[in-house]
Amino acid sequence: MSALKLILPAFVLSLSAGCTGLLTPSDQGISCQRIEADIRWGALSGLTADATDILYAVHDHNLPRPEIQTMNVSGDQAVIVQSFPVLRNGAEPPYDLEGIARRQAGGFWLASEGKPGRHLPNLIIRTDNTGHVLKEVPLPASVARYKIKAGFEGIASTGTGEQERVVVVFQRRWKDDPRGQVKIGQYWPASGQWRFYRYPLGGTA
What we know:
Blueprint: H1 3-17, E1 22-23, E2 29-30, E3 44-49, E4 54-59, E5 67-72, E6 79-85, E7 97-102, E8 108-112, E9 123-127, E10 133-138, H2 141-144, E11 152-158, E12 165-170, E13 181-188, E14 193-200
Antiparallel strand pairs: 1-2, 3-4, 4-5, 5-6, 7-8, 8-9, 9-10, 11-12, 12-13, 13-14
């Protein structure tokens, strides 16, 4: 039996109970600390910076409610210090959040990945500072018609007013993309216009 097969069961048990040391029958030593688990870390899908020591994060649909988490990174490790739900008209929308960007003018842009089987579109979403949805922006129909299961997977924004731009990346090639190329979408909030670009995928090592 390999050393890994001997170590792994005891290692898992030690993480759940906490330990100061562990010795397996194969004399392979492991030391560990008790881990205070926070399940919210398990599905993080987007991160954006604000002040020097403050970050904001979102998780995907593997956790039941869409929310924005505030992190303090001033210490030796990042700590989730606050979370608030993303609400649309007072209710929790069925978003699959895959990205977050802090707006220079305040609030956030969020990216929600579409789910064709559930008839949920890919959306970019503008919220205020407390997560209340102010606007949902779908893709143009001429682009959305080529959707696949994978959709938005990240978001960024820059500028304010007439110069504000929002950029979203697509996880995989859609039906209208040439082989080996994937879309990037650019949205201009002031005019409501979209522009799309493609970038080539790199080869595998």
